[in-house]
Amino acid sequence: MSNLDGVHLSVRSSLPEMQLLGCIASSEISAQGFAVVLGSLAKRQQVVGYTLGLAKRGHPEIVSVGGEEDDVFGLLTALQD
User: Fold this and answer.
1) How would DSSP label each residue in 5-64?
2) Residue 2 has what DSSP assignment?
């Protein structure tokens, strides 16, 4: 794949958001063995992140609350090993 630094990509879908999230997570699990889902409430900057797919590998799923998105993503990605 080419380097896409500096390129903004957008996918528009008629699927409901949760169904679209499920499709993306399923693809990530198929490719990587796990997915990381991040979210936050509009009124709070606190990020909640959790893994999906680790249970299929016999491991518990992991949840992290607090921190910046990049930090939570990095933590969950590192811990999944």
Assistant:
1) TT-------SS-HHHHHHHHHHHHHHHHS-EEEEEE-TT---EEEEEESGGGGT----EE
2) -
What tokens were used for 8?
Answer: 């903004």
Q: In which order are the strands placed within the sheet that holds 47-52?
A: 35-40, 47-52, 63-65
For residues 48 and 79, what is the distance between their CA atoms, to the nearest angstrom?
15
| Whole-angstrom distance, CA of residue 51 vs CA of residue 20 | 17
Encode the chain (81 residues) as per-residue pLDDT tens digits.
467 778 877 778 888 988 988 999 999 999 999 999 999 877 777 899 999 999 998 999 999 998 889 999 999 999 987
Residues contacting residue 60 through CB under 8 Å, at least 6 positions apart = 54
Cα 22 to its chain centre, rounded Å, is 10
